[in-house]
Amino acid sequence: MSAVFALSAAWLVWAAAFAALYALHGLGCAIGADERSVGPLTQLQVMMGVVWIAALAGSAGIVLALWRGAEAAPGGVPRRLLRASWMAALLAIFITGLPLTFPSACV
Amino acid sequence: MSGDAEPAAQPDLRLELARTWSTPQGWWGVIVNVNHTDLGKRFMAAAAFYFCVAGILSMLIRAQLASPRSAFVGPEIYNQIFTMHGTLMMFMFAIPMFEGLALYLLPKMLGARDMAFPRLTAYGWWCYVFGGMILLASMLVGKAPDGGWFMYTPLSSRTYTPGINADIWLLGVTFVEISAVCAAVEITVTILKLRAPGMSLDKMPLVAWYLLVTALMMVFGFPPLILGSVLLEVERAFGWPFFDPARGGDALLWQHLFWLFGHPEVYIIFLPAAGVISTIIPVMARTRIVGYGWIVAAIFALAILSFGLWVHHMFTVGIPHMALAFFSAASTLVAIPTGIQVFAWLATLWQGRPELKLPMLYLLGMFVVFVMGGLTGVMLAVVPFNWQAHDTAFVTAHLHYVLVGGFVFPMLAAIAYWLPHVTGRQRLPRLGEAAFWLIFVGFHATFFFMHIVGLMGMRRRIDTYHAETGWTLINALSSVGSYVMAFGFALFLGDCLMQRFVKRRAAADPWGATTLEWAMAIPPRAYNFVSLPSVRSRDPLADEPGLTQQLKRGEGYLARVREGLRETLGVETSTGRIEQIVVLPGNSALPFIMALVTGGFFLSMLAGLYWIAPAPVLGVVVLACRWAWQGGARADVGPLQIGRGERAPPHPETTSTPGWWGSVFTLCADATFFASLVFGFAFLWVVAPNWPPPACIGSISVEAAIGIAAPMLAVVAVSFARAALRRGALARAMGACMAAGVLVFVAAAGVAAIPVLGKLPDVTAHAYAAVAGAMLAYLALHLVIAFVMLGFAAARLRAGYMSALRMHELAIVEQWTRYAAVVAAIVLVILLLSGACR
Ligand code: HEM
Ligand SMILES: [Cu+2]
Fold first, then answer.
1. Which atom of ligand 1 is nearest to the CA of B408?
2. In chain B, where does the domain assigned CATH 1.20.120.80 lie?
3. pLDDT level of residue B1 (50, 70, 90 thresholds)
4. A70 touches chain B (CB under 8 A)
């Protein structure tokens, strides 16, 4: 099982970030968080932005750790595969979050 | 290997094995058979039958659309025809087809003697048969589902489908889904536990990875649909308004639940086919697969990404653009892992010396068709294009390019490749090639033109059109194409059936394959291997010449029959180190009876005889206890000889048993079902119109306190029981189990008090109360399950089935008690918080 977890971990982080963004979006639009502004941004943008950046930072951290740390193979999965998975997931999180830059959120 | 302590292989070993694994002759044998080879073949044959039925329906569709203003069938019948075509193809052909292939192949490829839960295989089979009979019968009497294969509400709700048609879909398909979830759990556990010793995960044949991921996707992907079907059926039967916007429900909830299943479903169908491709290509190219690790990593990416795409089926329902963009982004991302696979296949072909044998021909067809489907898919993932093409024949064309390219062609390749294994015979030359060309050309003629009429504005699911539209010629060509294709399929089928009559023996390993399923006599014996292999590489047949003979001579593991028991080996999930001897159950009529009783439940619901329904439910509980009671051991025997100088304990004396893992994955499916329900609550609360509800749940602090605290105490009691059992204090363990049972019962009473004392508002008045009621029902069900299991554990303890060594049954009961406690806490806290709903 540990190999299964090791291979899915990166994508589970993506899935969690994706689900959180989608849920926050639905919730935020329902409570009108897109109409309250925080500086140049809206409250909704701030909330979702925080999640996005946290997910990006978290997975970037793991990519770094996989690059530096000892050459162990968690769950018997070769390092290069894990590195590739995490980098791909990092990219996926980035791309999935890009719509945050849309000017309006709830229409 | 033949040390002196080692008993020589039993002289009449093959006879002995054949006797142990055999099934009685005649009808009785058909009913009690639990063997994976036979059931796998049955699944595939039945799936082929449904392919023919659904194929004939599609011929009728094309006959109707061939000319304008066709009066071949009226709109009512037409609706039933295309709905049944889609439903049968998706649920009765595609899923069962790959299940059958997995059941047939997995143990053989992994080097085991059967699947992990043979009786569950049989139960899944009978559920499939009975569910299918409901669907077929409805078609014969002209009351078949007619709301499209995704059954959108409000079209499928009581008001707009007053008849039984929608109930047939909801109940029939749910019945078949049970079979699919059973298969998913079983496939997962078999791959994780029943591999040949030494086969660490990274030495598995690639197709096992594909099937593992597919099965996991089913564990998480099917529950949302099952939930949706249950809710819709409850709405139709009892008027709980989950999907009725006038009463706080939302039709979009159905769409979300359906596509939360429906999109992953596409990959659930595609991945096993891709597994087949990855198995056949290297053999055809006489080389090894390129990029094994990359493919495995890509499968995981694909599987999880595919859960984030579902809203792309709902681009036109008015969801905010930003949310659409999330899903659009994710939809384009899946192209990357899919691309990795396609490139790995091409690289493998490039590296090898491909031969154009029949399976390869079908794979080439797959490449062309699937890639074209992928391209139109990318087009549809673009939101503005989607707005134009949604619900036109363009989408129908796209989906058939993907499904036929991604599933039907690979399955035809699989049949061409493994049929000699099933029958032990050779096929006639050239018939299969002719069939291929008819299918290939006919397919493109049918569906390529549908892209064009789609872009010209022809909607899907219309039963007729005017000549002025200018679609006539194209539609006629498309219909002719479909008849050409039908001839092709008939020829293919004929080619397969010919093997019954033309008896030309196939060679032992006709393709020069390297995986273990060819290391046995073909057609295979019920026990697969005379003795079990030990695996050191990914291509055992290539790297260890003579392996087949060695195994036949009984030089592998378990080259003996112990007390007439069916045995195979269990390994550690990752490393493939031997952990236990798994003792499998023998022939049994229980699966058949249990499926009959389950069918009784669905039939009573269909007939609207709701007051009868509790009887079959009770029957299932009783049968389940009987089922679980069989097996196990009443004495410790310690590690036994397994051959090659090694020893392993029988599985009751170990902890990481197949049963334990099976319970874990069943709970995963169950938890997904629950999570979908909670999602539904949140979704309706946030999005649905006509909120807040007219009345909130009353003050339930006392009931909630009891309902939360009692199961927690029960969990403590069960841990105590485990500790006592470990010390050998059987009486104490039994007492603790019974105490836990009482506590769970108290909790159930507390939960029941909420509706009984009238604290739950009218469940038919508003979706708020309906979902709250559904959550309470779910909780009550799990308290009852925990109660029954605790009682069962106490009885097993009493009857001597547990000891300090034999603890795994109690561990399983503990899982379910814990789960009930967690559900209790979540449900009751949600209800407490939602008391302030206004
Ligand atoms: C064997 C050749 C096949 C032909 C000629 C065919 C033909 C068609 C046609 C013409 C439609 C459109 C009905 C309409 O919009 O009025 C359709 C719908 C559909 N087909 Fe097929 N099909 C074939 C195979 C398959 C296969 C293999 C699958 C799945 C594994 C499949 C799944 C579906 C689904 C899901 C729909 C949509 C049904 C709905 O709108 O509710 N088809 N098919
Ligand atoms: Cu999709």
1. 27
2. 692-833
3. very low
4. no
Rg (CA), chain B: 28
Which tens digit of pLDDT belongs to each residue from B411-433? Answer: 999 999 999 999 999 888 889 99
Encoded tokens for B625: 């206890």
Cα of B49 vs centre of ligand 1, distance in Å, is 16
This model of the complex carries an ipTM of: 0.95
| Best mutation target, B195, B295, B304, B681, to test chain A (most A CBs within 10 A) | B304
CA torsion B475-B479-B485-B486 (nearest 10°) is: 160
Over residues B271-303, the pLDDT tens digits come to 999 999 999 999 999 999 999 999 999 999 999
Which residues are registered as beta bridge partners of A41?
A38
Where does residue B5 rank: exposed (0-12), middle (13-18), buried (19+ CB within 10 A)? exposed
Residue B86 CB neighbour total at 10 angstroms: 20
- Residue B299 C-alpha, separation from nearest chain A C-alpha, in angstroms: 9
Interface of B with A (CB under 8 A): 192, 200-202, 212, 216, 293-294, 296-297, 300-301, 303-305, 307-308, 320-323, 325-326, 329-330, 332-333, 336, 573-575, 682-683, 686-687
Which residues does ligand 1 sit against, CB inside 6 Å? B 55, 58, 61-62, 82-83, 85-86, 89-90, 94, 148-149, 396, 400, 403-404, 407-408, 446, 460-461, 482, 485
Beta bridge partners of B646: B643
DSSP B699-743: --HHHHHHHHHHHHHHHHHHHHHHHHHHTT-HHHHHHHHHHHHHH
Q: For the segment B780-792, what is each residue's pLDDT rounded down to a tens digit?
A: 999 999 999 999 9
Mutate to test the pocket of ligand 1, among B88, B89, B401 (most ligand atoms within 8 A of CB): B89
In chain B, which segments carry CATH 1.20.210.10? 34-498
- DSSP-derived letter for residue B585 is P
Report the alpha-carbon angle A65-A70-A71, nearest 5: 105
**Higher per-residue pLDDT: B321 or B627:** B627
- Which residues are within 8 A (CB) of B499 and not within 5 positions of it... i.e. 6 or more apart? B419, B423, B425, B426, B427
Tell me the average pLDDT across B78-94: 95
Whether B806 has a pLDDT exceeding 80, the answer reads yes
Residue B307 Cα to ligand 2 midpoint, Å, equals: 9
Arch. (CATH architecture) of B34-498: Up-down Bundle (1.20)
Residue in chain A closest to B691 (alpha carbons) equals A30
Is residue B674 predicted with pLDDT exceeding 60? yes
Q: What's B692-833's CATH class? A: mainly alpha
CA distance B252 to B153: 8
